[in-house]
Amino acid sequence: MFVIITYDVEEKRVSKVHKVLKRYLTWTQNSVFEGEITEGKLKKCLASLHNIVNKQVDSIHVYKVQNAKMMEKTVYGQEKNFDSMFL
Amino acid sequence: MFVIITYDVEEKRVSKVHKVLKRYLTWTQNSVFEGEITEGKLKKCLASLHNIVNKQVDSIHVYKVQNAKMMEKTVYGQEKNFDSMFL
C-alpha cells in the first residue's frame, strides 16, 4: 500500500520522529514522508513513533491508499530530495 | 475528488499561500490542507498559488484520489482544528 505521513510535533521531538520515518519511507517535504510500505512495517513504524510523541501536543496523520495507482501526485516548484542533502 | 495539499514555502509567502488554500480546503496540520474539491475549483486554487509561490525555492505537493473512500486517514495524537483557533 502507499502512505503519506505528515507530522506536527514539538521541536525537541522532530529529529527522533524524522529518524524513525526515514527507516521506512521517503522524506519529500518538510514534515512529510511518503512511499510504499507493508501493513506489518507500517505497524512497526507507528509503534516506534508511539513511544516518541507526546499525544497531548503532537499530531501525526497517516493517509493510506491500498494501491499507489489510485493516487495522483503533482509537484509544483521544487521537488526537494532531502536525502541527498544529508549524505 | 479528495485532495491533500502540502506546502513548503518561504516564511514571507506562508500567510498568502494559507489564505488561498483556506478558501478551498480544510487546514488540518501545519502546512497541510485537505478536502473534497472539484477539478474546476482545484484549477482555480492552483492558479492562485501559481501567482504567489517562487518556483525556484518553494514546493507544493498535490495528492489526488478520485474517491475519498479509496483513502484511509488515521490521526495519532492531537487532531487540531486550526480554523477554530482563529475565529
3D structure, described in words:
Chains A, B: One of its GO terms (molecular function) is RNA endonuclease activity. Chains A, B: Its EC number is 3.1.-.-. Chains A, B: This is CRISPR-associated endoribonuclease Cas2. Chains A, B: InterPro entries: CRISPR_associated_Cas2, Virulence_VapD/CRISPR_Cas2. The first copy, chain A, has 87 residues and is of the alpha+beta class. The first copy, chain A, has a single domain, classed as Alpha-Beta Plaits (2-Layer Sandwich), CATH 3.30.70.240. Chain A contains three helices and five strands, in the order E-H-E-E-H-E-E-H. In chain A, strands 2-3-1-4 form a four-stranded antiparallel sheet, with helices on one face. In chain A, strand 2 and strand 3 form a beta hairpin. The model of chain A has no long low-confidence stretch (mean pLDDT 91). Chains A and B meet through strand 1, helix 2, strand 4 and strand 5 of A and strand 1, helix 2, strand 4 and strand 5 of B.
